[in-house]
Amino acid sequence: MAEYTLEEIAAAVGGTVEGDQSAVVSGLSGIEEAGPEDITFVANPKYESLLKITNAGAVILGEGVDAPGLNVVRVADAYVAFARVLAMFAPEPALPEGVSDLAYIAADTDVDESAAVGPFAVIDAGAKVAARSAICSGAYIGRGSSVGEDCIIYPNVTIRERVTVGDRAIIHPNAVVGSDGFGFATVEGVHHKIPQIGTVVVGDDVEIGAGAAIDRGTMGATVIGDGCKIDNLVQIAHNVTLGKGTILAAQVGIAGSTKVGEYVVMGGQVGLVGHIEVGDRVQIGAQSGVPKSIPPGEIWFGYPARPIMETKRTEAYIRRLGDLYARVKALEKKLEEKG
Amino acid sequence: MAEYTLEEIAAAVGGTVEGDQSAVVSGLSGIEEAGPEDITFVANPKYESLLKITNAGAVILGEGVDAPGLNVVRVADAYVAFARVLAMFAPEPALPEGVSDLAYIAADTDVDESAAVGPFAVIDAGAKVAARSAICSGAYIGRGSSVGEDCIIYPNVTIRERVTVGDRAIIHPNAVVGSDGFGFATVEGVHHKIPQIGTVVVGDDVEIGAGAAIDRGTMGATVIGDGCKIDNLVQIAHNVTLGKGTILAAQVGIAGSTKVGEYVVMGGQVGLVGHIEVGDRVQIGAQSGVPKSIPPGEIWFGYPARPIMETKRTEAYIRRLGDLYARVKALEKKLEEKG
Amino acid sequence: MAEYTLEEIAAAVGGTVEGDQSAVVSGLSGIEEAGPEDITFVANPKYESLLKITNAGAVILGEGVDAPGLNVVRVADAYVAFARVLAMFAPEPALPEGVSDLAYIAADTDVDESAAVGPFAVIDAGAKVAARSAICSGAYIGRGSSVGEDCIIYPNVTIRERVTVGDRAIIHPNAVVGSDGFGFATVEGVHHKIPQIGTVVVGDDVEIGAGAAIDRGTMGATVIGDGCKIDNLVQIAHNVTLGKGTILAAQVGIAGSTKVGEYVVMGGQVGLVGHIEVGDRVQIGAQSGVPKSIPPGEIWFGYPARPIMETKRTEAYIRRLGDLYARVKALEKKLEEKG
User: Fold this and answer.
1) What is the pTM of this model?
2) Residues 224-263, chain B: which have Cβ within 8 Å of A?
């Protein structure tokens, strides 16, 4: 296990030590679990009261928070510094090294010599894997698909044919990229399959969660913009586009041809109908069902989703319905008495 | 890339050319993206206005739609014709050919000589794969299971033991068919597993989406009728039955023993409780939560789901609650003034 | 197929025969499908009326239910007895036997000699598989992870590095345990990944459903308590804890750091926000969206979720809104007439 002095940690995160800068920490832990050998952090004001009772040996803090009696590494942004310190304490990566003899790599592929391929992974005909990327056990890279530099494709991921994945992408276990879109032309009770001849273009710095499914375009491409972060078990239908930096929490579902802007954030289990547009920087609360387009910058919530203030007002009205029924009854009685 | 004259395309889709029948197109594209080398289509009236500004070289249209100045392939049903033309432009299929030396095929299996099996696929003891079916890389066909003719079983699919899959089925990557149903008998705080000794029967012409999960029956079978189309990440519990031609959009969940009729359509993220019946040709709106049986032919929506007109009326009442509170307040004031 | 006399069955389930104890049954079936060669059961009063018309050769019944003319195996708990009889009729297990030559087992692993490993499964460096456990085809056991005794890890499961799985766990096909938690620190529009250096601890007697995803802790562990039963396509985020005996139906999603107590039951598609606490023995109805902590023992339902009586009262108020509008209109008219 790694060990660092607070001086070393402060240097790594661009901070300063308040207290004993030669103090050594050998682990990183949550404020409630931390012991004297651990460094911890507080980025959320709701946990500041725990600073008085923590057993941590040191704490990473932003400006304006005091921690009497504790060694402090003072930084501009405690959450960002925490991420850097996490990386310092991270165990060895558990990725394949080199190309396993037990992988199948078709003849006409282009696998960079610095790439790694695990046992029982398949790099199918014409596929390309760029420098320093790892294709883990049981993952499948389809015909003519390409994976950029410094990617991690975790075990049992399926990337079908003609898909493009950018640099520094991380695709978590058992995710699927490039499955057929869901389209049928129904004639006299028979659902004829619409061939899905398009593809998926995944940008740089994208994460795709475990078990997520991203369909290929019917024609053209389903597009996942640079820097998008997609959580587990998310469903992205054919010809959806996500602008750069958009974040989708777990189990979100987006129906076909919907265009989502940049830096949009959706909570878990949100559903969007097809063929709508969601503007840049929109935020959508968990489990919302979105039936129509949303202008840029708005915050929506509910089923059906509406601007959040409207939904909250409606919820307040609904909570007071018992009172409203009573008032109407009182009016009726009063009027009755008056004859 | 394929090239066709409009005459060739018209012949293929049973249509007629209005304009230059010797004009050549080399691609198929959406009306907004199409260039002079592309053919496009309009099947949805909402896109008809784009006919005036498209750059497409030709357009597939049904009756009653005009496109002055454009080469038109006139057909009875533009959407069906579009599906056929998509197939004409489809790239080579990216499926395994022949049986890979790197597959594992148990001794007593029955794999047709025209079937294909990819690297690291497993055909377990007693399993059967019929003519022209493709079992892709990393897929698992369990003991005694059978896959019909002309099926595609995509990479990393798991089909457990004693499951029957009909002809022309397509099972998308990482889907699971035949997992244990979720049943426990709880005695004094211990959840004892109910053995799930049944199976799954998948009909002909079925599609099962990426990452979908279809549990086996506790006893008897979970049944997916002929022609059912199941989208990604759908959950089908033990002993559910789906009638023929039923369509389930992504992330639908159906609890145990529920019987769904023929030609039912469910939007994304719909949930159904167990032990209910959904009649033929029922339609259920996205994200609905269905707590009870639905008679044939009805359209339901909402949480909890109700007949759609009822839900829409209720939504209208709810939207006007602010006004209702104001009216009640006005009444109170008026009555107060009258003393 | 197995055959048993009713005397043998009664002995196995600790019951007594009322009728012909030498009668032989060769199958187990639902009460509607059962024929003279089958034994069936009724545990739910709603099916008791079918006792008059069933063709079953025998029926398992608890106290207080009559079945004139039928051979009865009388027991204390019909559902528990049914589970035992199911096991008596269960076909041979379809699991790997021994260690396949086609598996990859890294050099420094500890795989018990009684364990089984299927073709194309991977036991990565430093991993441990204890006695009598089966690791099926295409499953991946990550570096330094351990699987306890008598476990079943079904095909194409991915267990990432440093995960601990207890004894008698069953992990269904294509589930993922130990994927990265979903955490980012956003600075000037760039989402920096928070390294996820924690792990997952899965207790004894746990089931994890097909395609489910359980993320590892950011620091520390995501914890699945002993005896938890998790259905298909469930999402468990980083640092969630589930107390023992908790049951999650399909497609539930639980956001990060939420603490769920013991013997909690959630219906399908329930969503919980992060950083809340759900007390012991709480029950949450299907599709509920839970925005805050729930005290022990309560039953909640709705979107947003509330105590169930409150939600039901609100639903009743909402259903009667048409009537309320009419009453207010009548009051207005009456007051108008009075001038």
Assistant:
1) 0.95
2) 227, 229, 231-233, 245, 247, 249-251, 263
